[in-house]
């Protein structure tokens, strides 16, 4: 096999079998669909506890929520920080959910890894090479989001940094790219799902929330992602989206919509 790519460990040429990441009883990259649901940001113990209850009741396996938020402007709400990690860990444990949260700097990798089951690298940090190198030194699973202007080659090279450091537990996340279209916040690149699965053995997760930025598009693009072969979804859901502390309320599903989405998805793919 001719390997002409600059990445190696991330390549399917190098590693023909699919990577399956096992966390507790959940397998990511196997036969079953993994759904991660929750708010953009952790806001309070009550908020994350109630959302965790609803995520679990709907049948999803992972609770999402940011304690550290990468905001475009410095005066916007930046997340509740380490306290949010504690709130989310408690909610996850109470309701029997795994947790995923974003880590933005190498200094916070250890504390985030202490409280969360999966660490998320945001689109703005896909090429934060110091962060990627640090994530290579631990074994916690990492969900690496595609930079909103990155090619598949750049994306897979970013994953390579983590793999090369010694952490094999990497999943890729398509979360939309910047195009000329302004109706949607980003353009969810559905082709990325099968293309990345051809180029790489790593699981591919789709984020239709940031990929569209519009609540009414989350359900159809979730289904489209599963039809395209996604191994999982990460979806924003909020009990009071109009009053959420980040601007992402407009793309957050109401709990009833999230529950209905889960019922619809069960018809398309087995969910563990
Ligand atoms: C998020 O998941 O809330 C987030 C900030 O995502 P992204 O990095 O894809 O914008
Ligand atoms: Mn968000």
From TrEMBL:
It comes from the Bacteria. GO terms for molecular function: 3-deoxy-7-phosphoheptulonate synthase activity. Its EC number is 2.5.1.54. Keywords: Transferase. Residues 21-265 form the DAHP synthetase I/KDSA domain. Coiled coil: none annotated. The keyword Transferase applies. This is 3-deoxy-7-phosphoheptulonate synthase. It comes from Paenibacillus gyeongsangnamensis.
